[in-house]
Design brief:
Keywords: DNA integration, DNA recombination, DNA-binding. This protein has 14 helices and eight strands. With 381 residues, the chain is mainly alpha-helical. β2 and β3 form a beta hairpin. α2 packs antiparallel against α3, α2 crosses α5 and α11 crosses α13.
């Protein structure tokens, strides 16, 4: 029997002891180096076809992956060489946590280039069935999707299957974060008067600031003469330390009017902070921040949450998260028919669709007024 030979320049094919045929040829990898690619086939023809396909891509100038990544190994590589050096510390902490606790145990052994929509859908369905909340599951998908997007850029995979996963959550607690009415906001702020975080609460409700933005305002950002407050920084916890970093997007960097109620709160707080500085003496840490501890340090975001909930309970108000407080401002902008573009700039949204989505979620009071109008019309009043 005449042994089949591969033509020169078409790689080599040999038969292994296990009966399979192994084809090998040099190709260009995504980083520009030349490495030997190995393919396998049950027959010589199958191995030959795979080699031809690889060499056709080589001729077309398409880089090819030589290393066969497991998803878990790729996630580790991505975290260390991409996320850690290019993303915020808080982003790295979140991605690392989602990877270590959930993605690697659940999907880590899957070959990166053979990960399917079904694999991901099954994994996320199992996490939801296990009782994981919507926010946590979405963070898992965000992490996986970001890692797969990078793999696509490096031409390790052809598509991002994480983007094709669909979720179905029962929103049992939707009413718990219904925006407050103006009366409820006034009751909360009246109860919060005198609290060291009072100016932050005012900025969240009146200016629609995020929690981190309110805690990241510096005195240098307050333009008393121009009656303006510039949102530039945000306070975030990343692992075991607090960071003052730039806001995430260009849209987040925004000037806002220094409303009289905000100006009054800041003026009173400036006097209070000066008293703290004198009392602390050498123990004072000069951070330049508006909202600080009694020794000048950054305030823990979770302590903001605790204070918010404590004051809410003391005021006898229904449940609302600090982020829901920001949505209260957004919802009022919608009810007052503020132009969406203006609202988008006030809230620091980078996409108008986010602002419009909030606008479309009418408050219970707005729904009541709307149906009252329907009732009046149908009754002929």
């Amino acid at each position: 029997m005449v042994r089949k030979r591969n033509p020169n320049g078409a790689g080599t094919i040999t038969k292994r002891k296990d009966g399979r045929h192994m084809g090998r040829a040099y190709v260009t990898t995504p980083d520009g180096t030349r490495e030997r690619l190995t393919v396998y086939g049950k027959t010589w023809e199958e191995a030959h076809d795979k080699l031809l396909k690889a060499l056709a891509q080589e001729k077309a100038g398409i880089p090819q992956t030589v290393k066969s990544w497991k998803l878990g190994d790729w996630l580790d590589h991505w975290l260390e060489h991409v996320v850690k050096v290019s993303k915020r510390p808080s982003t790295y902490v979140l991605y690392e946590l989602m990877t270590r606790l959930y993605l690697k145990p659940g999907l880590g052994k899957r070959p990166l280039n053979r990960l399917t929509v079904k694999d991901c859908q099954t994994f996320f369905n199992q996490r939801i069935a296990a009782g994981d909340g919507e926010s946590k599951v979405r963070n898992m998908r965000t992490t996986l999707s970001a890692a797969l997007t990078r793999a696509m850029k490096e031409e390790l995979i052809q598509r991002n299957v994480a983007r094709l996963v669909e979720f179905s959550f029962e929103n049992k607690d939707a009413d718990k974060n219904e925006p407050w009415t103006p009366d409820e906001v006034r009751r909360f702020l009246k109860t919060a008067t005198g609290d060291q975080l009072y100016p932050a609460f005012v900025m969240v409700f009146y200016l629609g600031l995020r929690r981190g933005e309110a805690l990241g305002v510096r005195w240098a950002d307050v333009d008393w003469t121009g009656r303006e407050i510039r949102i530039r920084k945000q306070s975030q916890r990343a692992g075991h330390s607090l960071h003052l970093s730039d806001v995430k997007t260009r849209a987040g960097r925004r000037p806002l009017p220094l409303l009289s109620v905000v100006r009054d709160a800041l003026t009173d707080h400036q006097d209070l902070q000066n008293e703290w500085r004198d009392k602390a003496g050498d123990k004072w840490t000069e951070s330049g921040l508006v909202i600080t501890t009694r020794t000048g340090r950054q305030v823990e975001p979770r302590n903001f949450n605790r204070s918010f909930d404590r004051i809410r309970a003391a005021a006898g108000l229904r449940h609302l998260t600090p982020h829901g407080a920001r949505h209260t401002c957004a919802s009022l902008l919608g009810e007052l028919r503020v132009e969406p573009r203006a609202a988008m700039e006030i809230l620091g949204h980078s996409r108008s669709s986010v602002t419009l989505e909030i606008y479309q979620k009418a408050s219970s009071e707005a729904r009541r007024r709307a149906l009252k109008k329907v009732e009046k019309r149908l009754r002929g009043d």
